[in-house]
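Exercise 7.
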Amino acid sequence: MMKRSATVSAALVMSALLALLAGCEREGPAEHAGKEVDKAVDKAGQQIEKAGDRIQDAVKSDKK
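Solution. The predicted structure, written as tokens, is:
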């Protein structure tokens, strides 16, 4: 009797895990929007770094 309940419990746990994993495969609208925000922030950060480099170059050339 104990083996049967353990087997059923294990099967239920495995089914629940598979259902969770299957649900995670699809990209929802919030995840897509989050990825787009991440890209925009990355791009903005790169532009700020470039601007900072240009400012430093301008300051260095003015000192010479």
